Amino acid sequence: MAEAGATQRHVAAIDQGTTSTRCIVFDRSGNPVAVAQEEHAQLFPQPGWVEHDAAEIWMRTQQVVAQALDRGGLVPGDLAAIGVTNQRETTVLWDRKTGQPVAPAIVWQDVRTAGICDELAQDGGQDRFRDRTGLPLATYFSGPKLRWLLDHVPDARNRAAQGDLRAGTIDAWLIWNLTGGPSGGVHVTDVTNAGRTMLMNLYTLEWDPVLLDAIGVPATILPTIRSSSEVYGIARGMLDGVPVAGALGDQHAALMGQACFAPGEAKNTYGTGCFLLMNTGTAPVASTHGLLTTLGYKLGNAPATYALEGSIAIAGALVQWLRDNLGLIERAPDIEPLAQSVPDNGGAYVVPAFSGLFAPYWRSDARGVIAGLTRYVTKAHLARATLEATAYQVREVIDAMAADSGVPLASLRVDGGMVVNELLMQFQADILGVPVIRPRVTETTALGAAYAAGLAVGYWRDLDDLRANWGQDRAWSPSMGDDTRATLFAGWKKAVARSFDWA
Question: Which of 159, 203, 338, 434 has its CA 20 to 30 A from that of 237?
Fold first, then answer.
């Protein structure tokens, strides 16, 4: 067991995701030395509503931190810093005196704010705020969720005006609790998370008075916007004395963890949803093909780095649906051998528009469909179509990204839970027509948060240190003919069109 005060040999990251919370401790080479993970409840009180209990998330966070330290034989003094990465748009409103949430957190997938978005779009359309935020009006983002909470939680607006409430995305909630909560917790967020609220100006990196007024959110309840890599405060409790020094939304953290530090470098994360980010340098690039203009990261006082993003709502969650709702598999990994038992999809396509379609369509009226069914189709074909759905969605985003950036993709760096599925990775390479590359360390989201925290305290010197840590584990090269690729993709586009105008 290491003793307190020993040389600080590690950096830790809290990776708070949509379905679970993890704590991972990394060494200087970016290798995980201890990991702990706990799931939390997914709450579906009405069709289209998705909620989390923020108090449970904080409890799970404390559990995984304690477990990771124990498994690594570590004490807080062994950690140079801790970083936080999080499911991004999920929105929490809490009482600053008790530290308790005043309502369930509204998850990024939730579509209850469709009416608010429609109301806001009446003056200026879906792109009303795009020039300030880089984002279309959509249920995805946090600002309308916060407006909904203020409008529907009894006495919330009055309590907010009196200074009794605090609001933020999960990063702000966790940092506030880590640094003391009701007893002096620091209320901050970073530019990558603030940029997903539809309340931050993409250029000033501050809360925008025009946006706050239009959407109906008081600035007084919002956290202070800081860079992604600086010391926000010192942890209390189980991490007592450890600097809390990094925060990034999960996809931005993966961009860092994949060492995509040069313009044109891109990564794709396959998780609950699927998120492709391309570094575009220190100037925002406007999208005309359905992508988001977003922050990549901001390291201390250095200029912000921007990115183009394609967001896909349902990827790994479709496998969970096949398991939990349909019972076609017992465990998520079972999908690969089942899908491999047939040579193709049998003509079937699954379009997982469970909460509408995100990039590049932004259709909240879309709903999921299974198309192309015949008596020939078996559960194995549906399993294969389920995996292929993710690859097709990624292809659509990459086509849009090439059109926006003018930079054709040469290869794709991938990470996230689904990259262990070799059938999916090969089909992804086939349908893209470019190599797909999996890194040696696939925990790139947590690694990116650790990098941000470590840079802030000098544990790593610069981006070259981080680049040196990246290494390739496996690459898949395309082996599909052009005609086959075109035929399969055309079938996908027809299936997507069938999902429109349902809701």
Answer: 159
Question: Would you state the structure tokens that stand for residue 89, as one six-digit string?
Answer: 């748009």
User: How would DSSP label each residue in 368-395?
Assistant: -EEES--TT--HHHHHHHHHHHHHHHHH
Helix (H) / strand (E) element for 126: namely none
**What HEC string does 179-248 produce?**
CCCCCCCCCEEEHHHHCCCCCECCCCCCECHHHHHHHCCCHHHCCEEECCEEEEEECCHHHCCCEEEEEE
Q: Do residues 346 and 376 make contact, with C-beta atoms less than 8 angstroms apart?
A: yes
Helix axes 379-405, 482-498, angle to 10 degrees: 100
Give the dihedral of Cα atoms 435, 440, 441, 444; nearest 10 deg.
-20
Contact between 494 and 365 under an 8 Å Cβ cutoff? The reply is no
Q: Report the candidate in 15, 73, 11 with the shortest Cα–Cα distance to residue 271.
A: 15
Neighbours of 325 (CB within 10 A): 8
Confidence of residue 5 (pLDDT cuts 50, 70, 90): very low
| Contact yes or no for 58/174 (Cβ under 8 A) | yes
**Model confidence pLDDT, tens digit, residues 230-249:** 999 999 999 999 999 999 99
Residue type, 10: H
Q: Which helix (H) or strand (E) holds 454?
A: helix 444-456
In this structure, are strands 188-190 and 224-226 parallel, antiparallel, or unpaired?
Answer: parallel
Instruction: Please tell me the distance from the alpha carbon of residue 454 to that of residue 246, in angstroms, as a whole number.
Output: 8
The whole-angstrom separation of Cα 93 and Cα 222 is: 10
Helix (H, G, I), strand (E, B) or coil at 409: coil
What are the CA-CA distances from residue 332 to residues 323, 391, 444 (Å)? Answer: 7, 17, 21
List all residues 6 or more positions away from 361 whose beta carbon is below 8 Å from its beta carbon. 290, 496
Distance CA(239)–CA(281), nearest Å, equals 35
Is pTM beyond 0.90? Reply is no
CA 119 to chain centre: 27
Selection from 139, 133, 107 nearest residue 365 by Cα: 139
Instruction: Count other Cβ atoms within 10 Å, centred on residue 3.
Output: 8
pLDDT digits (tens, 9 = 90+) for 411-446: 899 988 899 999 999 999 999 999 999 998 888 999
What crossing angle do the helices spanning 250-257 and 444-456 adopt, rounded to 10°? 80
Backbone dihedral angles phi then psi of residue 363, each to the nearest 5 degrees:
-115, 100
